Amino acid sequence: MALPQARPSFLPDADFLRLKALLIRRTGHFYYEDKDDLLWDRVRRRLHALGLRGTGAYLDLLQDPARGEAEWAALEAEITIGETFFFRYAEQFAALRNTILPEILARNAATRRLRIWSAGCANGSEPYSVAILLRQMLGEAIADWRITLLGTDLNETSLGSARLGTFSPWALRSMPPEDRARDFVPIPDGRGWQLRPQHRAMVRFQRQNLLDLLKPDAALEMTEFDLVLCRNVLIYFHPEVVLQLVHAMAERLVPGGWLLLGHAEPSPAYGQFLEPVSLPGTAAWRRGGEDLPPLPEMPVPETPVPEAPPPLPLSAMPWAPLAVPEAPLPRATPGQPAPATPAIALPATSAEEALHRARARADLGDLDGASLACRQGLEAEPTHAALHYYEALIARARGEGPPAERAFRRAIALRDDFAMAHYQLGLLLLAEGRTAPGRKAIAVAARVAQALPDDAPLPEGDGMTAGELRAAARMHLHPPATAAVRAR
Question: Taking a C-beta distance cutoff of 8 angstroms, is the pair 351, 381 a contact?
Answer without folding.
Answer: yes
